[in-house]
Amino acid sequence: MKTIPGSYKPFSTPGRLIRLSPHLPLQPGIDTLRAIPHINYLKKFSRIQWDPSLLGLEDTNIGATPTLVAAPTWALNWLQDIHFTRSSVWDAPLHPLRPWTNKLASPPAGLKISDTFLQSGGFINAWQEEGAWHMIIGQVQADSATSVLTFAWLQNVLAGGKAWRRRELGIFPQSLQNSLPIIYLQLGDKNGALRLHSLGIPAPIILKKNAQLENIRPWITSTERPRQVLMSEVAALYWPSVGHSSGALVFDGTSSGLIWHASAGLPTAFLGLYPSALGAQIDKMQAHWATWLATHVPGLGANSDKLTELLLCLREAVINADKHGCQGRPGKRIMLGLQYARTGKTLQATVSDPGTGHDHNLRSPLAMQHQRMGRHLGLMLIHGLADRVRFLDNGATLQFHFRLSSSSK
Amino acid sequence: MKQLLGITSDERAHTLTLSFPSRVISTNTDTLRGELDAFWPTPLAQLNTKWEKLELDFKLTSFVDSIGLNLIFDIVKLAEDRKAPVTAILRSRAVRLTFYTVRLDKKMDIKLIESPEPEGKEEVE
Predict the structure, then answer these.
(1) Residues forming beta bridges with residue A215, ordered by sequence position
(2) pLDDT above 90 covers what percent of chain A?
(3) Residues of A in contact with B95 (CB under 8 A)
(4) In terms of Cα–Cα distance, which of A309, A130, A285, A200 is closest to B98?
(5) How large is the average pLDDT for residues A230-246?
(6) Chain A residues contacting B via beta carbons under 8 Å
(7) What is the pLDDT of residues A181-236, one digit of tens each?
């Protein structure tokens, strides 16, 4: 593979750099990537080379605040061999998030690019490094509106569900509207420009220091608070009540997905993000939930019956989310949140999928007929074992509660 | 690979006993079904084609999910077609609650043995 001399030495060894967005091509001859603060991180990926189809493109700037985004393989495993040829003819529908309709090349099936995002000066580079995909997302103008769109698009891409994207953006608290609890977080204050950040890297990115949360990765470039992170701004899809508390949020990367758990000082909570098409992974996930529940929820470790009931409900909810919300196909993800409230001794579980919902009426004649035949028993189990069950988002989100102060039924 | 489903036949008592592993779940029910399907044409099955009672041994079982319940319902249906009563023997209260929640108690006699669970081995699949 031909390499561009001079500027791109860090990427001169085999690999592939694939550019998803032709709108802002990189400028040969200008070492723009070296100006990026996270270049040291990129240098670790030596097996990268330029795709020759990217050569000969016009100059432009990368942007003031490019951001490194590293995604785990499972999230990007469908981004394969995507080539775009640059075109100055831009058939740009006015409505954002319509499928890209460049006249000279067709996007790969399933890939949708926000025209608003592209026209605002965003670009995305993705490359494959020893089987894992990595992406760089950058913007010429990192204003909050663009950032939201950037990650709305990314979220859409990763989730494969437009409905989910809209729903999640819509229910975020105002202060968290620019947070993306799907692998990538935006950190910064709620009013100013936001910087983008990846949690796909298997190492802590936020640590407690001097009673404050600080980011420890050099590519965080919040101008107003270079290092401080407010807990309220961290992914809190399931922790809307978390205020300015301190603690440590660490990344626990597994091959099954991304899991965050909060340590002392924060509400006992667990947020899991799992790839769809679970297969046998569900057993590993369940073992992980069992360990976490027994460890972090008081009294549950000693009450194996209640723990079994909980695990059964979680398993059923997640399998349903995979089977129905994700149609069992890869490329999507399922979110699981657990939160234990010490007052009331209640555990709340929330399982969300990118589907459009379903008719969850257990009392319908068809549902009852199925139950008598021993079919579709998952929801029946959850209703029977949990103390309270409710559906949100037309059934795409299931939430149930267990009171843990009483003994098993 | 070790058999997951234990199948024994008592000719004198005309009882067929199915002994289940520690988990009857989505990731092993296909194997269990396969083992059951493989059993029917065997000489042992032919010897006791007149089993009149079905006993489901869940003494080692601590976890059953909805896919596992599908299998159990199908097995119970087999017995119902032969008009054979079904008895399930359990040690786990959680499993018993699972069965009651889906009203399996309407289809079989569920007996809970109140004794410490044996140190069962996790089957390697």
Answers:
(1) A206
(2) 7
(3) 308
(4) A309
(5) 31
(6) 280, 282-283, 304-305, 308-309, 311-312, 315-316, 319, 371, 373-378, 380-381, 384-385, 408-409
(7) 222 322 222 332 222 333 222 233 445 555 555 555 433 333 344 455 544 333 32
